[in-house]
Structure formats: structure tokens, C-alpha cells
Amino acid sequence: MSYRQKHLLAIEGLHPPEIGHLLDLAESYVLLNRSGQTQRDVLRGQTLINLFFEDSTRTRTSFELAGKRLGADVINMSVSTSSVNKGETLLDTAATLNAMNCDLLVVRHAQSGAPNLLAQKVDAAVINAGDGTHEHPTQALLDALTIRRRKARLEGLTVAICGDVLHSRVARSNIHLLTTMGSRVRVIGPPTLMPAEVTTLGVDVFHDMRTGLDGADIVMMLRLQRERMQGGLVPSAREFFRFFGLDAEKLAYAKPDALVMHPGPMNRGVEIDSAVADDPHRSVIKEQVEMGVAVRMAVLDTLSRRHGRND
Amino acid sequence: MTPDTLFVGVRLLDASTGLDTQGDLLVCNGIIADFGAGLGRPDGATAIQGDGAILCPGLVDMRAALGEPGFEYRETIASAADAAAAGGITTLAALPDTLPAIDDPALVHLMRQRGEETGSLTILPYAAITRGCAGEMLAELGLLREAGAVAFTDGANALCSARLMRLALSYARGFGARIVQHPEERSLGAGGAATEGELATRLGLPGIPAAAEAIQVARDISLARLTGGAVHFAHVSTADALALIRRAKDEGLAITCDTAPPYFDLNETAIGDFRTYAKLSPPLRKDADRQAVAAALADGTIDAVASDHQPRDADDKRLPFALAAPGGVGLATLLGVSLAQVHNGTIKLPQALELLSAKPARLLGIDAGRLAKGAQADLCLFHPDRIWQVESGKLPGKAQNTPFDGRALEGVVLGTWKAGRRVFG
Predict the structure, then answer these.
(1) To the nearest whole number, what is the mean pLDDT of chain A?
(2) Environment class of A76 (CB within 10 Å of its CB; exposed 0-12, middle 13-18, buried 19+)
């Protein structure tokens, strides 16, 4: 077994063979899913709880489907953020989950590090489904799988991550994964949306889409939250779109066969133009969703085996 | 009636008078009666054998938050007094941002009295600069001063308004009182949980730039120059702020500052993997800043080392990092962590003790922190080389939120005496 952690809390710290193992296993789940052999009993008798402190339809559904396809008993717990903004409730929840003998716990939380805190308190294997502005490991894995299936490799590719890098857990996880696997990563956005000292993560920084996209193999767009405009980080949506929104004109600077990716949900006309998002020759956004299920099956499978319950 | 005590064969150390000699010290009726070589033991006096230990003035901690009034679930004054005694501290200046805030003369009296009731700790109350420490309306500085406030501060809240700060400095000057500022420009620090930089970026935590401290310090130095008032910057943590303070002192302005052990002993990496016990305000900084703080202890830019004690309940800390309350306890570890700077050669032992007693006493305008005939016998006996390990859960006092959990320290407090009465050891 080449994945050596009990949990999946972050991409940072994982070694290439661990990432490779998860991607390889996900690859086989893609084939099985496509062949119609979707029902497995890898997780039969195990309980998977989707604990979402933040609204999310697609990630939760993806984990739910992955768990069900592997035969787990899947329970969705959505905890409204208004009733939970104190962490003691988080730990109370952990105690409750322990009492239910939960095997796999998928957590999304608005606070960076919340899954780490839960992982200290629960017996279950914890899977981070997005925590604050920290990490979103399964998103990076599904992005990597999408890229690898289209380009046959990760090493040596130039990947441009564009937009609100500062607030993006997707960007952080992707930066860690892609740099670990040997891709060259660029981040493009206005200086106000760049994390401090981001170059220490091994990326090149650009503030101009044309130079940043020049020669890129992959163009990865990030969602821009509306509230960033109120915070003064970006003056307006139209100004952002003018300089950092992806349209056909800017995309022309990337390689002719460059792929366009977006973790969803998209703000059409803010960070991405519909013509690009829906271009079947360039956009792999729908494929990302398909890869998401396979990657989550691979993660759930791997972590349940780590428990020794499935051997 | 307190029994008399004779310390035999101890190293007597008082940097303020240059005293550093092997000898005896006699305490009668709570007063230092005599010291020197070969003192006789009066009938009935308890003898304490030196055994390589150092006897110094009880430590004067010029910045500590107490749980009372308002936050008794975190710590009571009685439990803080236990922790202080275990740390060799006999005098402590308490922050006013309690609930209610210490913004009324009656509350100043109350805090002094609560200190006296402990029998082991003199509590010197700071009073609020603004009512409720809310930063809006000046408190009754004159009446508060008259009631016994040692200086004015809004505690963990920086006084943001330049106009109010100007008024406070001018007005307090008339009463000969200092304004103590938490140096953090609030709009830059708002919502921040860690020092801005690589680590905060990796952890996805909102950052507080180091410049937030220097900006506030620069503004307040300008206001001190404008008003002739005295500003004291608390828990200074960055190289840039220290450089500004050094220049202001050279200029002759009434600028002083302190720091706290975390800022010369720890750097930001202590928060790795979201350790909320290392979440402090100001946040732990990069190592270059930590080194600058240590250097400023040595060159005299820093006037005092304070515990910056901030008691927290486990529930205040068992939260996602950005939601956890900042602050660490510091009473029991104040001496040990400071002595690490002696053991690593940054400062000399007398200099360390001066930063922990005589100098803060002078800043607070009190007659303490001296080994002198006729002075009150507030004493700390410690062994400089003995080793102990800090362990959260086993520290004296109620609050256990130490950022130094697991740290081995050289320097063990053997006993603490308040007005001649043994209160620890």
C-alpha cells in the first residue's frame, strides 16, 4: 500500500507515489464506471458521513455517489452555518460521530484547519472536502486525473491557475499537487488576490493574462466570490473580467491544444466567458465532474483499507 | 506575625544597585533587615540554605490579563496569584480590559484590594484610556490616577483614533502618567490570525502583516513628539517597530517598550498544523523578527520583559484556528524562558533580572524590585541551572494555555516570599 496516511487532510506533505497511487486507482474506477459496472462492495457495512458545514451541492453529491457505488451506508449531515460558528459544536459533533461508529468522515468547513481539529477527535478516517482557504485535496486529485488522462502526464506541463488565488483552497491544493508531480505552475491575478510570498510554494506569478498564459498547456480558472468586490480587493466585476476573465482572445495566448478547467460553480462573465466554458474542444469542465466521482471512490477505498477493516 | 528568615550562602543579585555577591540575607518583620557575609541567625528565624541558588528581588510583571472581573471561568485572581508565586512574581500590573473594564475609580480600588487579599501578590491596576476600552470616549484619567491606576491602556485593543490618542497623551501628561499601547494598526490586522507570509499562505489563514505594528508605532511616536506625552509600547514583536523605537529614544522622546517571552523564544512555526495554543496577539513572527527582539533585549531598546499572561479556557482554544481566542499564559514560565536568553549568551544574568524587576518597577513608578536594607522583603529564590519541562495541564493556576508546552527550561523557582512570608516553595 503506497498511501501512508490515515486521513486525507491536505495535499501538502503527500509524496509522489501516494498521489500516483490515488490517481492510478481512480483511473480504474473511471473505466469501471464507464463500463456500467458501478456497484462494488468494497465499503459494504461501512458508514460514510458527509458532514457539510458549508453549502455545496456538487462536492457532496460526488462523495455521496462515490460512497454508494462502493457499497457504503451514506449519511448526509448538513449543518447550517448560522447555528454553528462555535467550534465546541464541532467537537460535540465529533463525539456524536464517534458514538455512531462512523468509518469515513467527509468534512467541509468554512474555517481553515477544521478537518485537522476533527481528525484529532474522531476515530474515523477524515477526508477534507474543502476547509476555508486552506485545501481541497480531492479537487486537486480530480483535476490531476483529468489532465493526466488528456495529456498522458503531469510532469513538464505548464499549468496556469488564474483569478482569486488568495482565497482559493482549490489553488493551494493544485499548486502542491502539480509542483510535487513535476508540473510548472503559474499563478495569474491582480496583486490584491495573490497570497503573501506565494512564490515560496514554487510558482511563478503573473499579473497579466497574456504573458501568463503564453505557452500554457492547461488553463485553470478559479471562482471569484462576489464579496471580494465589497472588500475592495477588486473594484468591479466588469473590470475583473476585462483583465482576468478568460475569453477566446486571451485563451489564444495559450498552446493551441490547451485545456480549460474550472472547479465550479462558474460565474459566467466574471472569470470565464460562456463561449470558452462551453467550447467542447477546449473545455473539460464536465469531464472534471466525472473524474470527481472516480477520484473520491479511490480515496474512500484507500482510506478504508488503511483502517484494516476491509482486509 | 511573619517569622523571620535567614538566607544562608546565597548569591545575592540586584542589578539595579550592582549587587552581585555570595552572602546571607536576613528578613525581619517582612523587611530586609540586613545582608552581607556571615550574618548571625536570630532566635526563631528560619534558615534557608543557598545551595547554589540565587536570591533576587521578586519579579515585577508589568503586563498580565487576569480573569477577574468577568472571566472567572478562565482564571480567578486567587489562581493567578498561585501561578505568579510559582513563577517568582510578587508584583503584577493587571490589564483593564476586563468585564466590566477598569474605567471607574471604584474598580481601581477593588483591584488593589483583591491583590492584597491574595497575601502573595501586589496587583497594580492599569486603568482604561477610554470608557469600556472601546476607543471612543476618554475615561476619567485624573480620578483613575488618583485612585491608584499605574498607567493607562485599553489592553488588547489598540487605540485607533489618532485624535483620541493625541488627547490621551496630552491629558495624561498633566497627571504624569504613561499611555500603554497595543501596537497594531487595526484595519491592517482586522480578521487576521497569523503573521502574513509563507506559513499563513500555506495554512490558508488570514494574515496580519508585520507592518501593522510598525505603522502604529510610527504614528504614536509622532504623537508623543507632538504632545510631549509618554508612550509605552507593549509586547513589541518586530524588527521594524524596534528600529523606530530605538530612533525615538535616541531623539530623547518619552518612548519605552516591553516584550514578552514568546517573542524572543518562539517564531511563527509554533502554530504549525493549527496549534491554537500558539495563537497570540500580536502573532508569533518570522524568525528574523524573533532574533531582532532578542538583540533588542541585549542593546537596551527593550525596557522590560513582561509575561503578557492571557488566561484562556480550553473551550476558547479548541476551535478552528481563526476562531480561537489569542493569548497564552505566561506567569510560571516568565523567568525560565527569559533565562534561556542568558544560557544562550544573548544577555547577562543581572541584565535579565533587571528586565524582570527593577526596570518594570521604575516604569510603573513603584518602589519594588530592589535588594536594599529597609525594603519590603519581596524575594525570589531560584536555581539557574536546574531543568524542568513545561507541561500544559500541570502548570500552577487554572489556565493552562501555554505556547511553551513541552519546552524544557533551565531555571527553577525554589521559593517566593511576599513581605517576608513564604508564598511558594
Answers:
(1) 93
(2) middle
